[in-house]
């Protein structure tokens, strides 16, 4: 009897605790577990809620749009970033007007950092007069220009995410397109290193759907339904020069493939590529076959492909797909550290390369260094020696040269 009563009391206590940890706001559920907050999204998955004060507040439908939720909340977030509203008005106006379009057109999905107005637990409407005064001098054509500007910024941050798994970086903003846009919009070459600019863009970039912008950028294989496509029908055409930077790098999670492939392809086109042999135990065919797979369907190899449902194909991990990759990375690292003239400039990055201290005793390192010393010695004797003359003096192209092996694989798999 007492045991049954105790069991019932425990069940009641558990129910009370569960109810106290769960708070409902409209159709979305919020849960707190171990001090962390989660939201159950419309598709049934759970999304971690962090930095709620950086979430864009939006209306659920047209009945809420008159409250100017997005204008007030975006302005409020920017207002907390030091003097950015005064120092960089064009950047702030681009963010504010684009936030309104995000709200009206519903350019968001379950992974986006937005909150509906009925879920908001703080009052942001006190800023309405202030934000309306801030934007009052902008004409209709000016608003359209700022929205275009803001959407280009969103596109640039999503390209960064595609390539590096991060929208923005600190202590300096990275990405060719984002750097160029920020310098132009802020009219300040140093703006890419301003903390308030970084914080403003860091909040802004998470308000818009990754998959929606990927679709507008024309990235192959993006997983997008008809509803999200329809929502993005009013998204402005992204400038061509921004789109052109998408495939400058492979997707996040495959950077070692890109570093090796781009270095080998570039070196194979140099005279040096004819003078250095590929080690006999190094097979390149499977590596280039893997590169072909990545280029044909890049999103399925993105490090977030599964968690963010980015790809219409089944996600694949690049880790372990090529047994030769560690050896190839070591080989291109040897080329980088060997002192071969003109080689270092062919590398897109050196952060993933093997350090010199771990290479100096490798047999291939000694061989490549001897070749480098021979060529550098010739150039010391006569800096005006042409590539053809150097090739003639050293006895012509070596067997199994980088140039021959790499060009053969590239042709076989249609790679550039």
Features:
416 residues, 2 domains, four-stranded antiparallel sheet, two-stranded parallel sheet, elongated, DEBR0S2_00870g1_1
Question: Layout of SSEs?
Answer:
Blueprint: H1 2-21, E1 22-25, E2 28-33, E3 36-40, E4 46-49, E5 56-58, H2 69-79, H3 84-87, H4 89-105, E6 114-116, H5 128-135, H6 140-164, H7 176-186, H8 195-205, H9 210-217, H10 226-231, H11 240-243, H12 255-268, H13 272-275, H14 285-296, H15 325-337, H16 363-381, H17 387-393, H18 402-413
Parallel strand pairs: 5-6
Antiparallel strand pairs: 1-2, 2-3, 3-4
Helix pairs in contact: 2-4, 4-6, 6-7, 6-9, 12-15, 12-18
How would you sum up this structure in a few lines?
The protein has helices at residues 2-21, 69-79, 84-87, 89-105, 128-135, 140-164, 176-186, 195-205, 210-217, 226-231, 240-243, 255-268, 272-275, 285-296, 325-337, 363-381, 387-393, 402-413; strands at 22-25, 28-33, 36-40, 46-49, 56-58, 114-116. The protein has 416 residues and is of the alpha+beta class. The strands form two sheets. A four-stranded antiparallel β-sheet has the order 1-2-3-4.
Structural commentary:
This is DEBR0S2_00870g1_1. It comes from Dekkera bruxellensis. With 416 residues, the chain is an alpha+beta fold. It has 2 domains: 27-248, no CATH class; 255-413, no CATH class. 50% of the residues lie in helices and 6% in strands. The protein contains 18 helices and 6 strands. It has helices at residues 2-21, 69-79, 84-87, 89-105, 128-135, 140-164, 176-186, 195-205, 210-217, 226-231, 240-243, 255-268, 272-275, 285-296, 325-337, 363-381, 387-393, 402-413; strands spanning 22-25, 28-33, 36-40, 46-49, 56-58, 114-116. A 4-stranded antiparallel β-sheet has the order 1-2-3-4. The protein has a two-stranded parallel ribbon with strand order 5-6. Helix 12 (255-268) packs across helix 15 (325-337). 37% of the residues are buried.
